[in-house]
Amino acid sequence: MTSPDGPHWLQPLTELLRQPPRVQSLNTNTDLLWLNSDHDTITGNKPWKLHGHLSRLAHKPSALLSFGGPYSNHLHALAACGQLLSLPTIAVVRGYADCALTPTLADCQRMGMELVFVDRNTYRQRHEADFLAQLQQRWSATLIPEGGSGPHGVEGCVPLAQWCAGYEQVWLAAGTGTTAEGIVTGLPEDTELVVVNVVADQGELLRRWSAQVPGRWRIVDDMHGGGFGKIPTALRQLIDRYDTQGIALDPVYTAKLLNAYEHYGEADKTTLLIHTGGLQGRRGLSER
């Protein structure tokens, strides 16, 4: 398994992702892998997906444009990467300009990102070719899908599998499943990937993976806590419990990962849990 590589203009990000992540032992058979770096903001799985999209571009783009909500980890990472690479960034945000900025969007704006607010009906057009062409023409920007998803995002996450060798199981939380699909592509045949779906998608991720994704994997579909971004009381209590152990969990992904592992984990198997970051989103806990 090789480290991430890319064109010369992308080297500042490439070098950050080449740093080995931190591994924390939780018990005799279970480790927690933190996708961290020396950068305060560029952490977690989102920069890996972005690297997959950007590494295919031989020349530095004039700007980057993507989509997200008011607490988007993806937009936060995109703004930070744009600042690192001296690249203008634009975000099409689901929401209204006259509302107070969330801490996430305030960070994005501080890092130089231009925020373009649209209503829900307009936001639904983010997958339509005509709408995307209009955006590309208006800002002369390279478009990146919401969340960094898509084949290029998957390719960006394949190198993460190098940190998973030697375990019988690897667990991580998934929304679009992009990071998980990249990892399972590079896993040894004797390692099972367990994907905790944080979206109440009525089995859509399972159906798609069953049709398209080879390898040893299974999807936990009943630990989403009511849906994407939903944070029930029991999950808040779990976050508080892990805080007392010095393990910070984000409410959207890693808290649901640890909750699922506590319910379904197999103590006799060597297991790696992947902490995909997103801790900036904890600032919105009191608002949800």
TrEMBL record:
<dbReference type="GO" id="GO:0019148">
    <property type="term" value="F:D-cysteine desulfhydrase activity"/>
</dbReference>
<feature type="modified residue" description="N6-(pyridoxal phosphate)lysine">
    <location>
        <position position="46"/>
    </location>
</feature>
<dbReference type="InterPro" id="IPR027278">
    <property type="entry name" value="ACCD_DCysDesulf"/>
</dbReference>
<feature type="active site" description="Nucleophile">
    <location>
        <position position="72"/>
    </location>
</feature>
<keyword id="KW-0663">Pyridoxal phosphate</keyword>
<protein>
    <submittedName>
        <fullName>1-aminocyclopropane-1-carboxylate deaminase</fullName>
    </submittedName>
</protein>
<dbReference type="InterPro" id="IPR036052">
    <property type="entry name" value="TrpB-like_PALP_sf"/>
</dbReference>
<comment type="similarity">
    <text>Belongs to the ACC deaminase/D-cysteine desulfhydrase family.</text>
</comment>
